[in-house]
UniProtKB/TrEMBL annotation:
<protein>
    <submittedName>
        <fullName>Mitochondrial thiamine pyrophosphate carrier-like</fullName>
    </submittedName>
</protein>
<feature type="transmembrane region" description="Helical">
    <location>
        <begin position="68"/>
        <end position="90"/>
    </location>
</feature>
<dbReference type="InterPro" id="IPR018108">
    <property type="entry name" value="MCP_transmembrane"/>
</dbReference>
<dbReference type="InterPro" id="IPR002067">
    <property type="entry name" value="MCP"/>
</dbReference>
<keyword id="KW-1133">Transmembrane helix</keyword>
<keyword id="KW-0677">Repeat</keyword>
<feature type="repeat" description="Solcar">
    <location>
        <begin position="107"/>
        <end position="191"/>
    </location>
</feature>
<dbReference type="InterPro" id="IPR023395">
    <property type="entry name" value="MCP_dom_sf"/>
</dbReference>
<feature type="transmembrane region" description="Helical">
    <location>
        <begin position="110"/>
        <end position="133"/>
    </location>
</feature>
<keyword id="KW-0472">Membrane</keyword>
<feature type="repeat" description="Solcar">
    <location>
        <begin position="10"/>
        <end position="97"/>
    </location>
</feature>
<comment type="similarity">
    <text>Belongs to the mitochondrial carrier (TC 2.A.29) family.</text>
</comment>
<dbReference type="GO" id="GO:0055085">
    <property type="term" value="P:transmembrane transport"/>
</dbReference>
<feature type="repeat" description="Solcar">
    <location>
        <begin position="214"/>
        <end position="314"/>
    </location>
</feature>
<keyword id="KW-0812">Transmembrane</keyword>
<dbReference type="Pfam" id="PF00153">
    <property type="entry name" value="Mito_carr"/>
</dbReference>
<dbReference type="GO" id="GO:0016020">
    <property type="term" value="C:membrane"/>
</dbReference>
Length: 323
């Protein structure tokens, strides 16, 4: 189970390393879906009303080739390692304080939810500058090519503050999203494990009590549910965040821009962005791109939670003394 557990054999450094490994695997698997999600969220409706997720994929493939699905992947890896490892590590540290505080058991779920919010806010703030560069690389790779060149292009477009475009939306969205994700996972995984099989050793409360296959299945189902619930609940904020992150982006005629990266909607103010979406696109506009985003969130949660749980399982097995 994610979060602090008493009598856990893993050290803080081992958990941090597991978080970094989880970030690498998660980005590698989810990168293509992230490209499709981003293009869908940022397009004006009149340009995408006939493009389904699969049609968008085909158009990107036809126009830009398979490599387009990995635009911004290198910086995406750095961002993912930083973001995912921070999430899990901060959650472990804060949940440790909560568990050891002697708080009433009935208040524990709420306090662990707030632990997730803290982890999400820390992760969002730390990784935001890289995320801004990555988002722009995913829509205009040549213009923002490379980490250093991308950073220069972002700075040239809007100064140092351009790296923190969408900060308010990022914190408001990412905190509750991570809090919900961890809370739903912590609630569902133990229930699923109990349904799947008996513990091998009833005196131990960690995942090593269960068969590895049970840990994998329970983590995948709980992760999928966590991704769906957390992203659906906070989706409008995710949409606003993306539009804020390209607020100072300007198309450069020196670089070729694909059809799916044109006619983008930009915002420079959080509240103004929400008002404009509702006024111009209706309430349903707040959920533009919801399907592909939720599918991506479910995939991300499945990969992240399952990888983290399995990696922790393996490390705990290695930590066991040889008999």
């Amino acid at each position: 189970m994610v979060g602090y557990q008493r009598n856990d054999s893993l050290t803080h450094s081992q958990k941090f390393a597991v978080g970094c490994f989880t970030g690498i695997i998660t980005r590698l698997i989810t990168q293509p879906v992230d490209i499709i999600k981003l293009r869908t969220q940022l397009q004006k409706r009149k340009h995408i009303k006939h493009l389904s997720m699969f049609q968008m994929s085909r158009k990107i493939l036809e126009e830009e080739g398979f490599k387009a699905f990995f635009h911004g992947h290198y910086i995406g890896q750095v961002h993912s390692i930083l973001s995912v490892s921070t999430q899990f590590f901060i959650y472990e540290l804060v949940s440790k304080q909560v568990v050891n505080s002697g708080i009433n058991e009935k208040h524990m779920p709420a306090m662990l939810f707030f632990s997730g919010i803290i982890a999400g806010c820390c992760s969002g703030a730390v990784a935001l500058p890289l995320e801004v560069i990555r988002v722009r690389q995913m829509i205009a790779k040549e213009q923002y090519k490379g980490i250093l060149n991308g950073a220069k292009a972002v700075y040239k477009a809007g100064g140092i503050l351009a790296f923190y475009e969408g900060l308010s939306a990022s914190l408001i969205q990412y905190g509750p999203s991570v809090g919900l994700s961890f809370s739903v996972f912590r609630f569902m995984q133990p229930l699923l494990l109990k349904k799947l099989g008996q513990r091998r050793d009833r005196d131990d409360a960690l995942n090593t009590d269960y068969k590895p296959s049970h840990v994998v299945v329970a983590s995948m189902i709980a992760g999928s549910t966590a991704g769906f619930v957390s992203k659906t609940a906070t989706y409008p904020l995710d949409l606003v965040k993306r539009r804020l992150q390209i607020g100072t982006h300007k198309e450069d005629d020196r670089f070729t821009t694909s059809v799916t990266s044109r006619h983008l909607i930009r915002c420079t103010s959080f509240l103004t962005c929400i008002r404009n979406i509702i006024r111009k696109e209706g309430f349903s506009g707040l959920y533009q791109g919801w399907l592909v985003t939720v599918l991506k969130s479910q995939l991300t949660s499945i990969v992240a939670f399952t990888t983290y749980e399995c990696a922790c399982y393996v490390v705990r097995e290695f930590n066991k003394p040889v008999r």
